[in-house]
């Protein structure tokens, strides 16, 4: 089959690579010229495992262009353009609209961009020549291609039977559960899934603050809770809060849809409020002393990516910079606007406090001696991930919700 994909960010490029690997012909459309040129030369413009290999190994199946008209002969046209937040938190559909207004031939359109419930029904009315389906993506950065090739489930939302059957045939080959439903339900499933995961994180962060005060250990609490399959251990890691290109944006957009429908979503609002509070809470663990030097270990919003969109590191840095604290960061891949060291040693040299912000392997495995160059050997583990937490040597260790962090606390009975 032949697919066109408009928008080659994480979602578009991961989808393109997945389709090429599955034996399809794919035309990728990217309007950003520098990004297009990089892709044409086989260079992936962000850190994402496996994608460069696909571009190298399937050159005959993949074409890049900046022109939507080059996709006229495709069987399906996939829309994967960005849907950023507007200043009021609502979802900005400008790129979706701009792309569709350039599609002149009658097409079967698959909406892969995250769009608010009701959008595809509206697009079907605005662009009646095309047939539409929503197939939301659930991929996680750092494992985007793997998630496209083997997702937990595929959700197909369309009112058009032929489109549903065609897509069920294509995605059925993945051997994962398929949910075929209406466009609005498919759009809802995407927002609801992200909102639920983000809320789970805020729930455990709320309890982590309480555990700090009460003298309990949130990681043990999460482990104990997670053994109940109705709860599950995933997304119960307390720390600095969630960031990234999806959770913050989608929580705002969902709340906005609720307000348009004259409803409050108190759980979602509280989860967002808790996430903001969590970053302030971690900042409050650093003493109020101007001239203090703080080393950020990790900057990206999570390990395995160089993505800094809505990275908690930046919010935390703002909190500390307001107190005239000197900040230096280190990250194996990500870059930011604050001072940055090329090595962990350089970041830690002369620092008064180190904060483990992103749980990269190389950072969670730092031995206690790695902190010897600090002025005061103090580590705030904002991801509760440091491997030596129970045997920190001369490092003054503090996790989040782990005040009971005693070396001899049994981890299980
Ligand atoms: C997320 C969804 O998981 C994915 O399904 C959707 O398609 C896009 O958004 P991603 O943004 O790549 O994926 O990151 P994810 O791994 O979900 O983590 C999001 C944030 O939550 C990160 O900042 C991470 O550090 C944080 N997090 C995650 C926690 O604080 N605790 C956890 O237990 C899990």
Based on secondary structure, the structural category is: alpha/beta
Mean pLDDT: 95
Please give the order of strands in the largest beta sheet: 3-2-1-4-5-6
The fraction of residues in strands falls at 5-15%
Order of helices and strands: EHEHHEEHEHEHEHEHHHHEHEHEHEE
User: Distance between the terminal alpha carbons, to the nearest Å?
Assistant: 56 Å
Which residue ranges are poorly predicted, with pLDDT under 50 across at least 5 consecutive positions?
Answer: 406-413
Query: Which molecules are bound in this entry?
Result: uridine-5'-diphosphate-xylopyranose
H/I helix tally: 14
Overall number of strands: 13
Q: Radius of gyration over alpha carbons?
A: 23 Å
Helix % is 25-40%
**Major sheet, described briefly?**
6 strands, parallel
Question: What characteristics describe this protein?
Answer:
single chain, 413 residues, alpha/beta, 6-stranded parallel β-sheet, 5-stranded parallel β-sheet, 37% helix, disordered C terminus
Quick overview of this protein structure:
This protein is 37% helix and 13% strand. It has helices at residues 10-21, 33-40, 51-57, 94-101, 119-126, 144-149, 161-172, 183-214, 218-226, 247-260, 266-284, 312-321, 344-348, 361-364; strands at 2-6, 25-29, 62-65, 76-79, 108-111, 131-134, 154-157, 178-181, 293-297, 326-330, 353-356, 378-381, 396-398.
């Amino acid at each position: 089959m032949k697919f066109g994909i408009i928008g080659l960010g994480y979602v578009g490029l991961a989808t393109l690579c997945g389709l090429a690997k599955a034996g399809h012909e794919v035309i990728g459309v990217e309007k950003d010229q520098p990004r297009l040129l990089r892709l044409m030369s086989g260079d992936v413009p962000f850190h994402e495992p496996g994608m460069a290999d696909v571009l190298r190994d399937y050159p005959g199946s993949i074409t890049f262009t900046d022109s939507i008209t080059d996709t006229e002969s495709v069987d399906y046209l996939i829309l994967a353009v960005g849907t950023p937040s507007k200043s009021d938190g609502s979802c900005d559909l400008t790129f979706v609209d701009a792309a569709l207004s350039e599609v002149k031939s009658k097409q079967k359109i698959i909406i892969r961009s995250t769009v608010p419930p009701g959008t595809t029904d509206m697009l079907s009315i605005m662009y009646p020549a095309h047939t539409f389906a929503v197939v939301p993506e659930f991929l996680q950065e750092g494992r985007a291609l793997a998630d496209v090739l083997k997702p937990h489930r595929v959700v197909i939302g369309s009112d058009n039977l032929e489109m549903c059957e065609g897509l069920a045939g294509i995605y059925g080959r993945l051997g994962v559960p398929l949910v075929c439903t209406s466009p609005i339900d498919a759009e809802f499933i995407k927002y609801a899934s992200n909102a639920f995961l983000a809320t789970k994180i805020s729930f455990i962060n709320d309890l982590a603050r309480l555990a700090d005060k009460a003298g309990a250990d949130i990681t043990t609490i999460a482990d104990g809770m997670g053994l109940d399959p109705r709860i599950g251990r995933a997304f119960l890691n307390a720390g600095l809060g969630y960031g990234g290109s999806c959770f913050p944006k989608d929580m705002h957009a969902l709340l906005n849809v609720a307000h348009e429908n004259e409803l409050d979503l108190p759980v979602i609002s509280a989860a967002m409020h808790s996430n903001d509070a969590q970053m302030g809470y971690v900042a409050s663990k650093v003493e109020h002393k101007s001239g203090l030097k703080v080393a950020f270990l990790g900057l990206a919003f999570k390990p395995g990516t160089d993505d800094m969109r809505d990275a908690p590191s930046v919010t935390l840095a703002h909190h500390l910079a307001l107190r005239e604290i000197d900040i230096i960061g280190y990250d194996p891949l990500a870059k930011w606007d604050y001072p940055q060291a090329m090595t962990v040693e350089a970041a830690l040299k002369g620092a008064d406090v180190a904060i483990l912000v992103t749980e990269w392997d190389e950072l969670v495995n730092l031995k206690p001696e790695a902190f010897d160059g600090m002025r005061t050997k103090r580590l705030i583990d904002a991801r509760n991930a440091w491997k030596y937490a129970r045997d920190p040597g001369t490092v003054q260790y503090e996790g989040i919700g782990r005040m009971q962090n005693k070396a001899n606390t049994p981890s299980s009975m």
